[in-house]
Amino acid sequence: MNLNATLVAQLVVFFILAWFTMKFVWPPIVKALDERALKIADGLAAADKAKADLSLAEKKVVEELRKARESAGDVRVSAEKQAAALIDEARAEAARIVTQAREAAEAEAGVAAQRAKEALRDQVAQLAVAGAEKILRKEINAQAHADLLANLKQELQ
Amino acid sequence: METGHAPTSSEYIVHHLTHLNSTGHAQKAVIDWSVLNIDSMFYSVVLGIITLYFLWRAASKATSGVPGRFQAAVEILVEMVADQAKGIVHSAESRKFVAPVALTVFVWIFLMNAMDLLPVDLLPRIGALFGIHYMRVVPSADLNMTLGLSIGVLLMCLYYNVKIKGFGGWVHELFTAPFGSHPLLYPVNFVMQMIEFLAKTVSHGMRLFGNMYAGELVFMLIALLGGTATVMGFVGHVIAGSIWAVFHILIITLQAFIFMMLTLVYIGQAHESH
To answer: ipTM score here?
Structure first.
């Protein structure tokens, strides 16, 4: 409980220790702490940003998927339309060809019938002439009767 | 010891409460500026150096990367002190010195208090082997130590009073606070201010000293139990010693913390104008 010079010595020691701490201990530790706090803040900000980016990307993906689905639908519809058009076209073409063929066949058939008729007419005429020749052998002037025959041929038409 | 026979209880206590000082025998006068307590000085300087080494090692390896356990522990301490300082001393410029002071005070006083946890006879007995017959190992149980610290804080208070308020402003405050500016009140105010400074400083130092001195004394009394070399004494020593030591862990930490906080509070007050 006695006071003595120790008090003054302790006072001096106290300030020396405090000075040392102020000079060599406090600044580096506080600096490190502040830097780390900054780093952590940066890291958190980066994490937040990454999260935002991710959600943005997910939105984009959904959007792209929706677009792709839509365009696929469009493609299918247009393909169907095109296919239907092709089928219609083909059907029309086929009908046209069939008609044409029928017409050609009919025309050909008409021509053939005509020819056959003419050939038949010729033959009938010849037969008639031959028959008439045989019947009217004696007094028949072929020349005189040619006009008659031609008239007859004309009537048979 | 020198007497040749086993000491009585009171001799034992008195012997353990006697400082190893520069005169070689117990100090007679209450105040004697020619005497130096060698044991207190030795332990406080050694513990001060340990404090600085411990803090300096952490500081020299401090990185902003992932801290090791040691660094993290020191950082927790620094952060705690920095937070307290920020809340109490509202001047970033002053905190550059005040906060390190508070950190030093806390760690240093904690270590000085922790000397109490060593067996009371361990270091004195080792000293006796080398012919050192008096030794007190708890520097903070020496009033010179604690008053030295509290006067240091007082000097800082005076310094910041003058620095923040200017010499004239401070003198003005000495005469006008706390009761107000009136010529009749000047002497009353001044006396109140002086009492305040004195009371702050004395109570600041005495609080720590009282706690540690009492703690040390209780450890000595417990040691006396064991010193009876009976079964009851031995059992009593173990039980009481354990309980008191565990309790003392709280006290040494708390007292170091209180001393640090009051240091900050007193210096913070020096920054505030009335």
So the answer is: 0.86
